[in-house]
Amino acid sequence: MRKHRVVAAGCGGMSRLWLDYAQSRENVEIAALVDLYEETARRRAAELGLDVPIFTDLAEALSKVEADLVFDVTIPASHKTIVTTALTVGCHVFGEKPMAESLEDAKEIVRVAGQTGKRYAVMQNRRYNRQIRALRDLIAGGTIGKVGSIHADFFLGPHFGGFRDAMESPLIVDMAIHTFDQARFISGADPVSVYCHEYNPPGSWYQGNASAVCIFEMSDGSVFTYRGSWCAEGFPTSWEADWRIIGSRGTARWDGSAMPEAEVVDESAEPGFIRTVRRVEAKAAWNGREGHDGCLDEMFAALEEGRPAETDCTDNIKSMAMVFGALESAKTGRKVMLDHL
Fold it and tell me: How far is residue 49's CA from residue 44's CA, in Å, rounded to a whole number?
């Protein structure tokens, strides 16, 4: 079994999931921890019983310890520096979303990955869910016919504090990437254009725009709409969003929690003003692990098999284009074509 030596960059709250996972794998050794605040890294090391070197600079860490893989669990503003530093010295990178704070930075990361021949895979944990994979299979199997419309609602009111509260576009930049990526995953289509209106409603505790409405045209001719808010108190959706996918033969629904289901036209019934439909329940055929563990399982499997991961940066940049296209549209008040992005 191939062994991996990992340097973990970023030792904040999210790092616990990544480091717990690393410690659970027999073929992974944590070689060092890196954080701008040395005490933060030392606390994390103590919590996990890790006796490893501590650094405040990734480049220094990689010059002093032997490693082939970097975990990037830093804040979005640091991703470009962390990822390109690691790639340039010959390490692969698995990192938290989003790839970067700008599309230009994301493109530069993809360029460096291609130039160095190293892999950079992005955490899109919401693909690794037995219900969403059952929904994708149901749609891919033609149950509801040709897809024409995909609708997602995302309404939650998390009080994070910290950097998200100060971001200019916290919902779209830090969270909508998940739902946008889910739409690509569910439909198998990529974005063509976007019109977006973002705003900050009364009662918001965010400095930036915490709500948005987006309309995407997709490469298969379908339209994907997104309605979201990160300051919606009451009647929350799940973190996976609430989905309705309408096809030529029926409609599929998924509330983000229960198994998806569809209602399709019953061809055996007599035609009427409202057609008779029959219920179809999605089947869970995927047996992988869910969430972060499932995504990390795929990242490691891809690395060891010498192939791009499902969430490789060359794929994830298409979801990033949805994010930054939406931001451009919101700023200009116009529909943005995504081919130039």
Answer: 8
Residue-by-residue DSSP string for 230-251: SS--SS---TT-EEEEEESSEE
What is residue 303's predicted lDDT score, i.e. its pLDDT?
97
What is the 8-class DSSP label of residue 263? E
Task: Take residue 101 and report the two structure tokens written for it.
Answer: 């704070």
pLDDT at site 270: 87
Q: Which residues pair with 152 in a beta bridge?
A: 226, 243
pLDDT, position 341: 66
DSSP 73-136: -S-GGGHHHHHHHHHHTT-EEEEPSPS-SSHHHHHHHHHHHHHHT--EEE--GGG--HHHHHHH
The pLDDT value given to residue 214? 98
Token couple for 71 = 């975990």
- Strand (E) or helix (H) holding 295: helix 291-305
What pTM does this model have?
0.93
Residues in the chain with pLDDT values less than 70: 1, 341
Question: Residue 16 is inside which H or E element, if any?
Answer: helix 15-24
